[in-house]
Specification:
This protein is α/β, with parallel strands linked by helices and about 260 residues long. It is about 30% helix and about 25% strand. The strands form 4 sheets. The protein has a 5-stranded mixed β-sheet, sandwiched between helices. α1 packs across α2. The radius of gyration is 18 Å and the shape is globular.
Length: about 260
């Protein structure tokens, strides 16, 4: 029995990645996960209030010649439950409690799916990247300013896991093991790997995944720290890098449609 969701219908969907410094969008070829044309990036307005961000998202979408039937997916740096922001990271606190999907529908005139940014990136890695065709439980961990996580079991996304806030040795994990913590504490890669070891040990103990995928900007230097980790679970660098959020949001929007 195949537990994976139905494959997305159609060829193109559009993804938008809302971040603290930039809002990026591109049409995605759903057959390959590649951009159908170059992405557009516009700086995130400051302050990043709901109306200001919605205006930029609308600008990004309107910059492309998209049919009204093209699905639109948007990542957001927060817990997103049924389209509503439950938190806010690197955007204005007035987002908390905002119905992201309705706000962007009103502004763009299109149906929009909103998803947590780490979830979108993780799903893209399963569908098109480093975890493609891997059965069972895949855990994608992004190492950056904080730690983002995505949990995908046999192709089904378990949303909003937020395991960067797991308590490890009495600390919120991302305060000790994120890439920002490495830079803040001026850690060598071997010293940082010791903190990562404790974090991944705990994830492995709790979830027993079939594969870890490590993303975030520092994944480009994976050879400096991943080989130092001693885990039972295979661990590999992400393949889609900074494109993953756009690709995952587009794919999820197409499947929801």
């Amino acid at each position: 029995m195949n537990d994976k969701p139905p494959k997305a219908k159609g060829r193109i969907a559009f993804g938008v990645d809302i971040g603290g410094s930039g809002i990026k969008g591109a049409p995605v070829d759903l057959r390959t996960g590649d951009f159908a044309t170059d992405r557009l990036r516009i700086p995130t307005p400051q302050p990043a209030t709901p109306n200001a961000v919605a205006e930029v998202v609308d600008q990004v979408v309107r910059s492309f010649d998209l049919r009204k039937s093209v699905p639109i997916g948007v990542t957001f740096p927060a817990v997103v439950r049924h389209g509503v922001a439950q938190s806010a990271a690197n955007v204005d606190d007035t987002w908390i409690g905002t119905d992201i999907e309705n706000l962007l529908h009103v502004r763009t005139g299109r149906q929009v799916l909103a998803v947590n940014d780490a979830d979108a990136a993780g799903y893209a890695e399963v569908e098109y990247g480093a975890a493609r065709d891997v059965p069972g439980l895949v855990m994608v961990v992004t190492l950056g300013t904080g730690i983002g996580t995505a949990l995908i079991n046999n192709g089904r996304l378990v949303p909003n896991t937020e395991l960067g806030h797991l308590e490890v040795d009495g600390f919120d994990a991302e305060t000790r093991a994120s890439d920002a913590a490495r830079e803040r504490d001026n850690l060598s890669y071997p010293d940082w790997a010791k903190r990562l070891q404790r974090y991944f040990d705990e994830l492995e103990r709790l979830f027993s995944p079939d594969l870890f995928v490590v993303g975030g900007g520092v994944s480009k230097r994976y050879d400096e720290y991943l080989p130092l980790l001693d885990l039972r679970t295979p661990i590999v660098p992400a393949a889609l890098r900074n494109n993953a959020g756009i690709v995952g949001a587009a794919r999820l929007a197409a499947e929801a449609r």
